[in-house]
Amino acid sequence: MAVTNDMKIMAGNANQKLAFEIANYLGVPLLNSQVSRFADGEIKITINDLVRGTDVYIIQSTCPPVNEHLMELLLMTDALKRSSCANVIAVIPYFGYARQDRKAKARDPISAKLVANLLTVAGVDRVLTMDFHAPQIQGFFDIPVDHLEGSIIFSDIVVKLMKGKSKEDFIMVAPDTGSVNRTSKMADLSGLDLAIIYKRRDEANKCEMVSVIGDVKGKTAILIDDLIDTAGTITKASKMLMDLGAKEVIVFVSHAILSKNAVDLINDSHIKKMYLLDTVPISDNKMSDKFEIVKVGNLISKAIYSIHKNTSMSALFKLPPKKPDKK
To answer: Are 258 and 288 in contact (CB under 8 A)?
Structure first.
């Protein structure tokens, strides 16, 4: 796909491989720039190409180390705005702090809202992201937000897994009540029944599986989640499903944070296979034979092209088939 020369792609340090792939899809060279450090650790932004009057798309997930990558994004934006670029579009495949989207208890910050404010004040004109932890975070921004969904990619993989088999042999499973809408859409796209795991969370990164609504016995359980951090939720869910008679467990996750001993937990779990989007780079020491990395560069590139050309993005969103009217 080719674009006019009034578009630039700038890469932060969070996911340079993805930035290169996006630039390659669009046929646009990466902006000649560096995000480095001064001797005291402060971030240094160097832009060697002319950006005056251009639209610059910054590719930067705010993944761990989240504060470093967020600060890089803010300073890149400031440097571009002070260089008289026309618009800064922050392409944030993974949006950090998204889990802090409300006051869970007294005197908590609403960190996701603060990050949205910081990006706006820094000069970001538009945000393109994927699979917010809570879709309503779009409302935290006072600028346009385009929100892609992993289900756009994952549904095709599920259809391939089901090829030549009966739909009755599969069931889509939401790992918690917060994932029901996301999983329900996947279930509708795939024509599968839906099961829901009810869990109780006592504190951050610790939860207890309580019950499953739905029949998983003898079926391949397909778990859908937006992110995997310490892997406690997903591994406990897979054990519970197997204990209830599921034939096997396959997992689809948009953002692979993989903190602490998450990979060890996954390797020792009942999970047969895990499909992970490359919104967050996974280092070699965190790879597992159970992982299959699914690329998002093509989808994000199409979204960027639509934004730049001011064309509709509706073609990028698969809608569940319409159910027949009841007579």
So the answer is: no
